[in-house]
Amino acid sequence: MGEFTMPSLGADMDEGTLVEWLVAEGAEVARGDVVAVVETAKSTIEVECFESGTVTELLAEPGTTVPVGTPLAVISPAASGPPAVAPGPGPAAAAAPATPLVRHQAAEEGVDLQAVHGSGRGGRITRADVSRAAHPAPARIAASPLARRLAVSLGVDLAAVRGTGSRGAVKADDVRAAAGSTGAAGEESAPGAAGGESAPAAPAGRAAPAGDRDRLAIARLMARAKREIPHYYLSTVIDLSAALEWMRTENSRRTVADRLVPAALLLKAVALAAREVPELNGHWIGGRFVPATGVRLGTAVSLRGGGLVAPSLADADRLPLPDLMAALKDLVARARHGRLRASETADPTLTVTNLGDQGVETVFGVIYPPQVAMVGLGRVTDRPVAVDGMLAVHPTVTATLSADHRASDGATGSRFLTTLDRLLQHPEDL
Amino acid sequence: MTRDEALETIRSVIEEVVPGADLSSVPPHANFREYLEMDSLDFLNFVELLSGRTGLALPEQDYASLTTLDGCADYVAEQTRGTGGDPS
């Protein structure tokens, strides 16, 4: 028997909110199936299970916020007998264990205790379980992640908002309009995040407003990074004329759907450089550097409405460029509009910030612990450059490296940026 | 496609790429990409959808014509007229 627990979806996550179950009790699941949707301080993420078997018990209610590691469901290995019940101190009686108070409540509310799943210790039925059985939770309201967050921070009940999105989904503007019309702005009056009216089945903290939680999560992680990591910084300007010329030729042969953007070339080059300079690709764990076996490239994606997520592109060094481009499009689209998979939030081995086409020319990032480096790519911009003793105007990018001086020295960082430059001069090999 | 139809199509595509975008705040001659903070992937997404709706190839060298609502509407109206005129 295995427990499906609230996963850690990043170094800075210590609790998460169960938004939705995608499986029911009794469902057969295979390792890798998406079974639940979890909301972290930063985004909504689809979570896969790591075991195959039967979901014998769902322990947590949607809307519940619990610490990382809290059991959410019980999964029994395939081909096991009757549904396993969590072992507990209580005797395994035929009738589900319940206190007299709960029995009394059940009688009053007309709930059959035999049909109720106990979520307490040893499968004990709690008052919350009875309330749930008597008043089933409303169906999940279709709403965008941003709308959900706004609803919590503005104290708007999503169920009372008329959605104007596709299939009546509630959009952020609908929530703003609802907040404006009722004048509801007090955060104290905020209802539960997902309409779960019953008491949580597991220890839960009252969640802070989502906007604040975003900021707090980033604040905690960045403070830790600057407290613990002695950063050193390097910068170099890379001529992109060869890379962009090659890309233009490629794109003229491609349909719109298959066109590349400069970010894809840059990310591929960074991934290859990370493979060539493995001293920067890995984690600082237990007082020493642990090199990673593959390159999982974290790509910082800014979210509309604020915030930042850094999902990872697995095997970015080995993906052919068109595949990397497709993966990038998919990842960014889902990070912004939909949901990421838990496997995509697994700790990256190296992170890149700024997709490089708007904004400033130079960015020096703060390293995400326990990673040991962060690559910054500024806006691609035309600059005067010296070519064969002549002045020319070429598209360029300023590439920076923030690196952990405990794990590497400037010479290593310098080798990384030089390698990145060399790789970008041969775009056909990317 | 008339210019009005083109503009309507462009607006709906932008709204799809940038959910909740307030297009009424974007001046017709302004660079809507900058206005709406669309990065290169958003813009590619926009080009892809617009290509699908209009049947135009929208080659990369024409991207410069697609930066403002006005320019974009002119371009699409012109290109879908099927006169075979030289777009450049």
TrEMBL record, chain A:
GO terms for cellular component: cytoplasm. The keyword Phosphoprotein does not apply. Residues 97-134, 142-179 form the Peripheral subunit-binding (PSBD) domain. Its EC number is 2.3.1.-. Its cofactor is (R)-lipoate. One of its GO terms (molecular function) is acetyltransferase activity. Pfam families: 2-oxoacid_dh, Biotin_lipoyl, E3_binding. It is an enzyme of class 2 (transferase). Residues 1-76 form the Lipoyl-binding domain. Residues 181-209 are annotated as: Disordered. Keywords: Acyltransferase, Lipoyl, Transferase. PROSITE patterns: BIOTINYL_LIPOYL (PS50968), LIPOYL (PS00189), PSBD (PS51826). It comes from the Bacteria. Belongs to the 2-oxoacid dehydrogenase family. This is Dihydrolipoamide acetyltransferase component of pyruvate dehydrogenase complex. It comes from Streptomyces globosus. The lineage of its organism: Bacteria, Bacillati, Actinomycetota, Actinomycetes, Kitasatosporales.
TrEMBL record, chain B:
Pfam families: PP-binding (PF00550). InterPro entries: ACP-like_sf (IPR036736), PP-bd_ACP (IPR009081). Residues 4-80 form the Carrier domain. It comes from the Bacteria. Coiled coil: none annotated. This is Acyl carrier protein. It comes from Streptomyces globosus.
